[in-house]
Design brief:
single chain; 301 residues; alpha+beta; Rossmann fold; Tumour Suppressor Smad4; six-stranded antiparallel β-sheet; globular
Length: 301
């Protein structure tokens, strides 16, 4: 993926989505609505977001699912979970509108822009001077025999995990036409470079710079010391088939940690690079490595 580009898309409608129940954002939302009005822009507020600030009939509103088709860009107030949910909706809708993530507390690795930077960052996004990261996304398909039972897009990762009371599981993994290994583990993660600093990192996987065109396969708590994460080309298709006792055990798959489902016996999960990247406005005041140091305390003693 390319490092960054400048946005040439004219922006007239700015979608606004806040984390559910984020009442401390009410004052910012009121200020934001006035700021957009003063510039002749239309603010399209997600229904619950508008309710947080009692904006009611004073602004245009829509649901989260409708947002990808209702705005030219989306401003997210909250944390990474809120941004992931919106990014996945944008990808699932087949659009490519850019996202601007503003952190409201918490780690916020993807929502790296701070609250004091909100309006300067939004101004840069609207006037076209802001830089856009093109973030590789994942396309996951769950097949049950000849049927497709799930077809999802994820920015960070696709993770298979054992049920709460289930023992370790066997996971047969192939890349393209080549068999890789049968992992004995608590689960397996297929992560994008963006997702390498999420669940993958917690499971002992490597940090991969977002511009690297690759996927990461990381076993979760493998029961063999020689099982290690592996980085593969983004052009590869990953095929995972869990082997477990269909009557007694449970295996789940989750997409970006949400919208998960329980797998049936003999289900096969395929993961590949999605056709469209997610466009993410980035902070001009700090580099990726600065974010690593600030958010993850990377390389600090």
């Amino acid at each position: 993926m390319s490092d960054a580009a400048r946005s040439s898309r004219p922006i007239a409608r700015v979608g606004v989505v806040a984390k559910s129940g984020l009442r401390e954002a009410a004052g910012t939302l009121v200020e934001l609505s006035a700021w957009l009005d003063s510039r002749g822009l239309t603010g399209v507020f997600e229904n619950e977001t508008a309710a947080l600030a009692d904006l009611g009939n004073r602004v245009a509103t829509c649901s989260r699912d409708e947002m990808p088709g209702s705005a030219d860009m989306v401003l997210v107030l909250g944390g990474d979970g809120t941004l992931l949910g919106m990014g996945d909706r944008i990808a699932q809708a087949g659009t490519d509108i850019p996202l601007l993530g503003v952190n409201f507390g918490g780690l916020g690795f993807l929502t790296e822009i701070t609250l004091p930077e909100l309006f300067p960052a939004l101004d840069a996004a609207i006037d076209g001077s802001a830089k856009l990261d093109q973030r590789r996304m994942l396309h996951a398909v769950v097949r049950r025999g000849e049927s497709v039972v799930a077809d999802r897009v994820a920015l960070n990762d696709v993770a298979l995990t054992r049920g709460e009371n289930s023992p370790i599981i066997d996971l047969s993994v192939s890349v393209g036409s080549q068999f890789v290994a049968a992992f004995k583990a608590d689960g397996l993660i297929v992560a994008s470079p963006t997702g390498s600093t999420a669940y993958n990192l917690a499971a002992g996987g490597p940090i991969v710079h977002p511009v690297v065109d690759a996927l990461v396969i990381t076993p979760i708590a493998p029961h063999t010391l020689t099982n290690r994460p592996i980085i593969i080309p983004a052009t590869s298709d990953v095929r995972i088939q869990p082997v477990f006792d269909c009557d007694a055990d449970r295996v789940n798959v989750a997409f970006d940690g949400q919208n998960g489902m329980e797998l049936a016996c003999d289900d096969v999960v395929s993961v590949a690079a999605a056709k469209r990247p997610l466009q993410l406005f980035r902070a001009t005041s700090r580099s990726y490595f600065t974010v690593l140091r600030e958010k993850l305390k990377w390389a600090e003693r």
